[in-house]
Amino acid sequence: MLPLLQDLTISQTGTYQAIFQGDNQQGNVATATTQFTVIPPPPANDDFATPVRIPSNPARYTADVTNATSAPDDPWCYGNAQSVWYSFTPLTTMQLEANTFGSGYDTSLSVYTGTRGALGQLACNDDAGSSLQSRVRFEAVAGQTYYFMASSRYYPVSPANLVFNLQPAPPPFTFTATVSQFGTVTPSTGAVTVKGSLQCSQPAYVSLTGQLKQKRAGKVITGYWSAFVPCDGVTPWSAPVQSQTTVFKGRAAALFAGGKAEFGAMASAFDPESGITRQLPLESVITLRGK
């Protein structure tokens, strides 16, 4: 049997039964019963205006955010259900990482600067690697306040046990791209292959696109190429050059041949941690060698 109203302690949660009795004008005793449910309030940091202010890092916080809500002006990062907020102001410029590793549900995590209604998103992450938890990394500038929103993806879940971690991050992602001094060409067909190497500070995918130009008897022959390379440490790359066959001096096909050629390209690498695409231009004069 559910407890009577007089036995209720307001701090307890659950479903309760209330019994009301009274006399009517005729002196008859009437009884009415009703049920009500006591739901705990949302966490103190449920709203952007009341974040948990983190004094230093590393820091770790755990919370039951099952009853967290979403404000109409909450930003979007793969959802914003059951959003809660944290803030941190570093004393020195540093690389920071925030994550929700150890949480018991599918989270999303994002970081912002600015004021309510005018927030600028620095990073947003849903699943870090194969995990259902999230991680963001960024450079934090001394004296700047950063706001972190941890949330469920599209809809509330129960239970929602959150773990929020703030800690120093490893150095930011960097990569370099080079082209080999020599390419290969098949004189009979003009088929060219260019090659080079990549060096990435952490695993990433690099896209390379470019063109090759060669002058022959006052005519410019142009070819285009591309490559998509999983880069981890030092990784070689190579790509065939595609070109259209044209008439050369009205008789023979204009084909690439051995000799100098102008090489130009753009290498683009996506950093999955920061969500930023980094680009490097490549320009060089290479030598095509017959094979």
Structure description:
The chain has two domains: 52-168, Jelly Rolls (Sandwich), CATH 2.60.120.380; 175-290, Immunoglobulin-like. The chain contains no helices and 19 strands. It has strands at residues 14-23, 29-38, 52-54, 59-64, 81-88, 94-99, 107-115, 118-125, 135-140, 146-152, 161-168, 175-179, 182-186, 191-216, 219-243, 246-248, 252-254, 259-271, 276-290. Strands 12, 13, 14, 15, 18 and 19 form a six-stranded mixed β-sheet that branches. It has a five-stranded mixed β-sheet with strand order 3-5-10-7-8, with no helix packed on it. β14 and β15 form a beta hairpin. The model is unreliable at 1-11 (pLDDT under 50).
Overall spatial form = elongated
Structurally, the number of domains stands at 2
Please give the alpha-carbon distance between the first and last residues: 90 Å
Strand content: over 45%
Overall pLDDT, averaged? 87
Which architecture of the largest domain per CATH?
A: Sandwich
Biggest sheet features: 6 strands, mixed
* CATH class placement of the largest domain: Mainly Beta
Total beta strand runs:
19
| Total helical elements | 0
Uncertain runs? 1-11
The CATH topology of the largest domain corresponds to Jelly Rolls
Structural class: mainly beta
Quaternary assembly: single chain
Taking all Cα atoms into account, the compactness measure Rg is: 32 Å
